[in-house]
Amino acid sequence: MLSPSPEELTVQQRVADLERRLGDPGDPGNPLGRDALLAADERGELLAEAEEALAGFALNAEFVPTELGGRLDRVDTLGRVLRGVFRRDASLGLGYGATTFLAAIAIWAAGTPEQRRRVADLLLGGGRLAIAYHELAHGNDFVRNEFRATPSDDGFVMSGAKHVINNVERAEALVLFSRTEDSPGSRSHSVLLVDKSDVPADRYRYLPRYETVGVRGCRNAGVEFTDCPLPADALVGKLGDGVELALRSFQITRSVLPSMILGGGDTALRTAVSFALDRKLYHRSVLEIPHARATIVGAFTDLLISDCLALTATRAVHLVPEATSVYAAAVKYLLPKLLTETAYDLSIVLGANFYVRDGAYGAFQKHVRDLPMISLGHAGTAACQATIIPQLPRLARTAWFSGRPAPEGLFRVRDGLPPLDPARLVLVAGSDALAGSLEGAADAVAEGARAGEYTEALTALAQALEDELRSLRSECADMPPRDRTVLASPKAYALADRYTLLLAGAACLGVWRHQEPEDDAFLASPHWIAAALTRLVKRLGRPLPKLPDGWEDRLLDEVLNRYHEARSYDLYDTPIAG
């Protein structure tokens, strides 16, 4: 492997520093380890010592742009660093870190210089932000909420309540999505930055904590305002910009949060491998059972598929911001779905030990409970599909098989990126370079030398993806007007599902085709990409070619090598602390 660039080396050092501070999660003597984290989860708390370690690492600096004194310069790096936290405890990842970033991105996207400086100083000083975009009673329809900020001569008067806001009591400032206009429509809401130290204490109160099955350490509670005065400079962006600002922010957060939670998938797979190696059944290890081996290899493959899609979506924020609205929604829709199915499959390997809540296998059960809560977050499955569906007919007409090719940098795992600029994001995708990269992919595989004995199979798989995209283009171009609205039929939702699978296939192919053996021998090899495309093409219901013998053994060897050498189960193959 070639020597890393100075930028890549800096990222690797940050990841290594965080791993060192948090230590080996399996070490019984580690006060920040698995046993302590599981005990804190049983108490419904975040582990205080772990929060102190993250403060010592200055994790909040990861959420602050470099020009304001932080370390946020690229979105893919943010997901990569936070995986180390989510690998140990999703509650910690959300409660200490990700929730603050979800709120802060709105300020970086549209805040005044004074607001940006104020929030940067708060976070770099160890403070927290909380965000409220939608109300529990209205599901993912974040426009229907119960905050109202009435414009006044001096600013605004806030009234109303929200019942579930993570960290609302612990945060020093709140980013609130509020109605500011009686008339219906997208211009009736605005975003306000509320510094709790600046508002009268008798004009707001906290509502009871909301208990959840997953991420039990997170402090989900509510807040109610009663005729609470807010200054004019609380407004983020312009009056009525709330919906637009939310949708622009989602283009970053929907991509990066699923990238973070891949750390939990790593823990699930690592726990299952540990069990399969240690547990004997009929005088042989569980790993010797063909079904267990296939399940473990399948889970590893799904993690690689997920990371390929997350990689391209987060890098697209920098390279093709005109397309990220649909990519971000695809990531937020597909990755939790894949990870949930992967966790279920692995739970069969664990058998009755799946239900254990402590000890060596307790982390698996916790991950399964946490994942649905993280996946819902600020935008669940239906909201993401509703973002994708209306854009499909236009993309089918103007972008697929007719747009500009995807930049190589979209698929390069460790290459540099231009600075993050949220202002470049647009609400409606104007191109689709990722799906467009499937055009001619089969010919490129057939003409290349890298696939070796996999050439025939990989060519057939790439052709299946290209044929599926052509079929999808025809069906989307004929989509009736009703299917382009919230009244879309089940067929329209099925089209969105197929589209996300095609994006995942294009991402995997792109990552494989643009990695050189001297950069990463495993990612440049044909074994994993053949397995990944086989799983995706099978989901699309198309015929599958036969793969050369031995592909599963080679992937299982990679799984076991990474397990014994303590390396991550993602594209980065990162050394980890156990």
Question: How is this fold's topology laid out?
Answer:
Blueprint: H1 6-22, H2 34-43, H3 48-57, H4 75-86, H5 90-110, H6 113-124, E1 129-132, E2 147-151, E3 155-166, E4 173-179, E5 189-195, E6 204-207, E7 220-231, E8 235-236, H7 242-278, E9 280-281, E10 284-285, H8 290-319, H9 324-350, H10 362-376, H11 381-388, H12 392-398, H13 433-436, H14 441-447, H15 455-477, H16 490-513, H17 521-524, H18 526-539, H19 551-564
Parallel strand pairs: 1-4
Antiparallel strand pairs: 2-3, 3-7, 4-5, 5-8, 6-7, 9-10
Q: How does this model look, in words?
A:
- With 578 residues, the chain is of the alpha+beta class.
- Among the domains are: 6-128, Orthogonal Bundle (Butyryl-Coa Dehydrogenase, subunit A, domain 1), CATH 1.10.540.10; 131-240, Beta Barrel (Butyryl-CoA Dehydrogenase, subunit A, domain 2), CATH 2.40.110.
- The protein contains 19 helices and 10 strands.
- The chain has a 4-stranded mixed β-sheet.
- Strand 9 (280-281) and strand 10 form a beta hairpin.
- Helix 8 (290-319) packs across helix 16 (490-513) and helix 9 crosses helix 16 (490-513).
- The chain is globular, with a radius of gyration of 23 Å.
